[in-house]
Structure formats: structure tokens, C-alpha cells
Specification:
By secondary structure, the chain is mainly alpha-helical. It is globular, with a radius of gyration of 27 Å. It starts with a helix and ends in a 14-residue tail after the last helix. The protein is built from 22 helices and 6 strands. The protein has 4 domains: 71 residues, no CATH class; 100 residues, no CATH class; 77 residues, DNA polymerase, domain 1 (Orthogonal Bundle), CATH 1.10.150; 209 residues, Intergrase catalytic core (hpI Integrase, Chain A), CATH 1.10.443.10. The chain has a 3-stranded antiparallel sheet. It has a 3-stranded antiparallel sheet with strand order 4-5-6. A hairpin with a 5-residue loop joins β1 and β2. Helices cover 53% and strands 5% of the residues.
Length: 510
Amino acid sequence: MRLIMSLKHLTVNSAGTFRYRRVVPPELHNAAGAKVLTRNLKTTDPAEAARRWPQAHAWAEGVLLKARRTAASATDGDIDHAARQYLRRELNQIEATAPALDPEGTALPIDFGNPAWRSARIEEAIQQTGMAVREGTDRWETLRRAMEDALDDSIIADAVRRGGLPLPPDIVEKAGQGPSVSVAITKWIGRREARIGLKGASEARRAATLFGKQKLISEIKKADAVKFRDELIEDGKSVATVKKYVMYLKGAFDDFSEPLDPAPRNPFAGLKYIEIGKPREARRAFSFESLEALFKLKHFTNPKNDANGQASFWVTLLALFTGARQSEIIQLNKADITTAKKIAVIDFHGGRGDESKNIKNTDSIRRVPVPEALIEIGFMKYVEGQKGRLFKIKSDSHENPAGLFSKRINRVIRKVERDAAVDFHSLRHTFIQWATEAELRPDYIKAIVGHEDESTTNRSYGMRLGTSPAALKRGMDKIVFPVDVKQLAFTARSYLLSDDAKKPERPGAR
């Protein structure tokens, strides 16, 4: 295995499938049409991956060779396209930070900058084109003039727009301007939010993030859409989820192209889908034995004293004792832990003021009492010591803090449970199962976990809406999970103590 992994650019995804993944040099991004070259080797067997590696490596070498040749032979058309691309990016950035339009606005004075600043900006713009044009040649001078003109147009547009006026139409026309994916999807959501709901809006924004929020929608090609589809499926997304993400992006592109004549072909239209591998098993709850074993692991009894360990400690406990979704817990702020009729509650909501949170649906907006076991372990003391977000968890490359957390905590779960149908989300199933066995009313369970309708609850778990915090807390306190509350409280106190404080005595040490 060590020999196999020594092969250059060979990686393994979360499903254990080998992939060839090669980073493209920045100067070749445009010519290669990608920042990363990937090819799925479609095997989990190391020996077979090694046999398939040479073909993938030869393919990547060919793509890079062609890109180098293309970059070295820039035509007038290539230069014109690069200048328009640069101007579009600049206009998009100007629009994103500009003030509201003002009918009585006045353009600000135009400052084209000093020679040193202008030269640095032009050099930067040329580098971004990825064109390997030799300095001092006619091609170089043509490229430089084109980028200088684009820079000047962006400076004029910035002065006009910051004065409250719309972008100059002639400059917009020069750029062939289209909004970024982020702006396009935001406008699409704005027109349909009442119909698609909070969950749909959240999923649409997620689709834009995964595809690339800053990409200009006018530059999306069919190959980009195909690559997006393939990468999502390779990463383990279901075909249903991929279709949904593509549908959102297709809608945003349709809105953008509707006023254009002729309207460009939608790159997200007509994509084909093939189910790969076995259908995903429905998640199931932890068994008594695996749940007991999980909370006896070093991760919960003697973990490393760092922010990641502390965050996963509390996020996991909250998932078990409240049945809350991982994304709901990770987004919690200190202000979300409040009281209702003298009972500590966790306030799950979609964001207040300038804050924005992703929630599944309107039924996910709820207040859940903090059960007594969590209080005994020390959750409220933990909350007292926090500011802002309760859990300091790093985001992945898609700006999603749940992404990296999922991978870390599921590796811990695999130490006690090898069944792929049992993962972090299974803690939610476990709460519902144990709540049902403790004879909590179905409507109480629904109020606690935030299920949206009876069919969802009955189909997945066997129950259903909710009532007062006091009644819910009495019900939740009836559930006794097979965990050592004293040991967990010791771990929590260990986290709270500073390095120079006296270490707490382990339970049962006397």
C-alpha cells in the first residue's frame, strides 16, 4: 500500500475509491480549462489503481502539454477574450460593493492612478490570463494594451457606480457582462423564495458555493456543468441531490439568459445521470452496545485539549441528547442558549438581524429544552465561557464547517461501528428510537426534533409535533442513555480548566 500511495497525484476519496488528481499551474488555468485535473480510477483495490494510474497520468500530461502550447500561441481572439474576462471580473466586484442606485447621483472624480500602481495592476492582470507570452514581443505589447484598456474601463466604471449611477452601458457591453453565480442564484431565489421555502433557498445557495460563487455565469460551458455533475457523484452525493443542485443552477442561468437575443444554450440542460454503485442504505440507530462503546472512547474520556476536540465533544452530546441535526448544532451562537419560563432552552432559528443560518424547513425553527443530563455534564458552564459561535470549527473548501467535522467524527464512530448505515446522523435516529421506547408522546418528539410533517416522521422513525418547554424537558429527562454522565462531566471540567489550574479528580478515584 505504501508503494501504491507513492505514485504521484494518486488520492483516495471518502468512499475509498482511488482518483488521479493533479493541480494545474496557475499560468495554465485558462488554457487547460481547469484548476485541477481529476480522473476517477473507479476502483478501491490498490493494485488495480496502480495498473490504471499510467493511463490517467498520460492523459493529464497530454492536457498540460496542449495547454502549454495554447498559452504560448495567443491569438488576437485569445487576448480579446482575456481582456473581456478581466473586465467582467472587475465590474462584478464593483457591483458587489457599490451603494444603492441614486437617480440624482453624480460620478466621482476619475483617478487613473500613478504609473507604478498602474503597471503593477496590469502585470497582475496579464499573469491572471495564463498566457505565456514573451515580454517585449509584438504579442506582449498587444496583450498589455488590451489589459490596460480594460483596467481604465474598470476605473471609469468604479467612479460612476460609486457615485450612485448604474454601470456605463458601453463598458458593460465591452465586457459582455454577466453576473457571478452567487449574484444570479440570489436573484433566482428572490423571485421564488415563497415557493421553494427556506430549505430550497439554502440548497440553492449551497449549489452555488459548490459550483463556484465567483464564476461569471456568462462564461459557464457545458463541460463545466458536466464536470460539476461528475465531481458531486464521485464525492458520494446521491443522483437525486445532484439533480436538485443542477436544477437550481439551470434556473439561475435561464433567468440570466431570458432577456438576451439570441439566448445562449443553457449548459445545465439535458445532463444525463447514471446511478453508480450500490444504493445508499437507510441510516439506522446505534445499538445499545455501540452507543455505550462510543462514549467510552478516549475521544470522550481523555481527549486532546484543543478546540476541535472540545467542539466535537459537545456537538456529539447535543446530537444524542436533543436529536438535533449536525448543521443546526454547528451554527449555534451563545445567544441561542436562552431561557423560557426559567428553563434553559436551545433556540434553533433561521437567523436574526444580519445573521443568516441554513435550516431545513420552517418546522426546524423551534426551542428545545436542555436536558438535565447535559446540565450535569456541564453544558451551561461551557456556554458561559464562549463568545459568538459556540463551536469553533474550521470550514472546508466549500465554506462548510460541517464538512470537515463530519469526516473527523465519523472516523471516531468507525472505531465502534463498521456498518456504513451508522454515522453521526444516526445519533438523531437513536434519540428518536429511545424517546419512543421511553413512551414520549409522538407530538412531543416531533416538537423536539423539528420534523416537518407526519409522513416524514412515520416513514423514517414511527412517530409525530410539540408543546411547553417544561413538558418537553420532563419527557426528555425520562430518556436514560448508556453513557457515564460522571465521566463525561470530568472530561468537560478538564476542558474548562486552564493549564495552570488543578486537574479535576477522576470519578471513582477515591
